[in-house]
Specification:
48% of the residues lie in helices and 9% in strands. The chain is of the alpha/beta class.
């Protein structure tokens, strides 16, 4: 592991052996995006450490937030600065080092042993899996976004009657070496959709409506609930693990319709397929996700995005994620996109939270230290390696 890892804070409650065991885990980040490989202005950086898509008001800084304080605490030492330095000093040092060196330091220090990179969102602006592997020194594989493939099919040209077959062929080819698939139905419609597979006639009719809309507006964006259902069921037929964005995200998502309990109908219909359904991030619905992971064998979840953005309070979020679900059903992710600080924080805050929470169980005599190490290893590494068949051919 990189010597930069020494900058991590020491454990508070547990034994040193537990802290070291968690710190040394080669985490599998099962849902993440690439890092930005070019330098950022101060404004650009601040816009990338919030889920808001609105301009930042001139009277505030985005560093005055949990994620901002976490960057200054945990990332500043990796750039040769004191913890809790001011934002101006941090950003000046970041610019001095340059994006390539910043990425190398932060990604290596994260201790992430394998990245599963979702490439469907602004993929031309970030490192692809090969670039992430080179920058971090760790393997990286791809997760393919269903909606992006459908939009590429329409951009390349199709008619309504041929859309379903063209999409299926494109998806099989596009995911030939991928480890998983993802849907953003939560953004494009909400999770309160009809869980049944649509009929071929329904798909063709919906594709016709979409193509007419594209022709009239010039905008290629799939948001018809019939088509979104079709993409999901085609993804299930593909047989790869299928990820769902759940809960908290940018303003494009209607959080009122982001509760994973709305997916129960789909979960039950998909169960005979044996395809793993991965509920991503889930905040503030992570307890609901834990219930689903407990009662349905095909459901898994993580609290990824919520960890970074709750910062010093992320210990509580991680603790709540351990309440209901079997430990074999919980995974680690960061959902980082853009600044490598988010990739690093996803790992360091998760390790810190697991150390404190599990260490508390050990200190209280509720768990043995061996049990704590086993659970941390399952969630941080082994569950993802099993679900995504890492180390096996696709």
């Amino acid at each position: 592991m990189s010597t930069d890892r020494a900058h991590r804070p020491s454990a508070v409650h547990p034994t040193d052996d537990l802290a070291r065991a968690i710190d040394d885990l080669p985490l599998v980040d099962h849902h993440v995006h690439g890092a930005i490989d070019h330098d950022l202005t101060c404004r650009q950086f601040e816009e990338l450490i919030t889920e808001s898509d609105r301009p930042i008001p001139s009277w505030m800084t985005q560093f005055d937030s949990q994620v901002g304080f976490a960057i200054l605490r945990h990332c500043a030492p990796l750039l040769d600065l004191a913890p809790h330095t001011d934002p101006e000093t941090y950003l000046a040092r970041r610019a001095e080092l340059g994006a390539t060196e910043v990425n190398r330091r932060l990604l290596e220090a994260s201790g992430i042993g394998h990245f599963l990179i979702e490439t469907g969102y602004r993929g031309d602006e970030i490192l692809d899996p090969a670039g992430m592997a080179q920058a971090s020194g760790s393997p990286a594989d791809e997760v393919v976004r269903l909606e992006a493939v459908a939009e590429q099919v329409v951009a390349a040209g199709t008619d309504a009657a041929g859309f379903a077959d063209r999409f299926a062929a494109a998806l099989w080819e596009r995911s030939r070496t991928a480890r998983g698939l993802k849907t953003i139905v939560a953004y494009r419609h909400g999770l309160d959709f009809d869980p049944r597979p649509p009929t071929p006639t329904e798909v063709a009719d919906a594709a016709g409506r979409w193509l007419r809309a594209v022709e009239s507006t010039g905008r290629i964006r799939v948001d018809d609930p019939v088509l979104l259902r079709h993409l999901i069921w085609t993804g299930i037929d593909r047989g790869l693990p299928l990820q769902f964005h759940i809960g908290y995200g940018d303003p494009d998502v209607d959080l009122r319709r982001g509760d994973p309990l709305l997916l129960r109908g789909l979960i039950e219909r998909a169960e005979p397929s044996g395809v793993p359904l991965l509920l991503l991030h889930c905040y503030p619905f992570h307890r609901n996700a834990g219930f689903l992971a407990q009662v349905y064998p095909n459901v898994y979840f993580d609290v990824g995005l919520g960890v970074n953005y709750t910062g010093a309070r992320s210990v509580a979020v991680v603790a709540e994620s351990l309440e209901l679900a079997p430990f074999a059903k919980i995974l680690f992710s960061s959902d980082a996109w853009g600044p490598a600080e988010l990739h690093h924080l996803g790992a360091v805050l998760w390790r810190r939270a697991m150390t404190r929470v599990l260490g508390g169980f050990v200190a209280d005599g509720e768990w043995s230290q061996a049990q704590a190490v086993c659970v941390a290893t399952m969630i941080g590494v082994e569950n993802a390696r099993r679900v995504y068949r890492l180390g096996e051919g696709t």
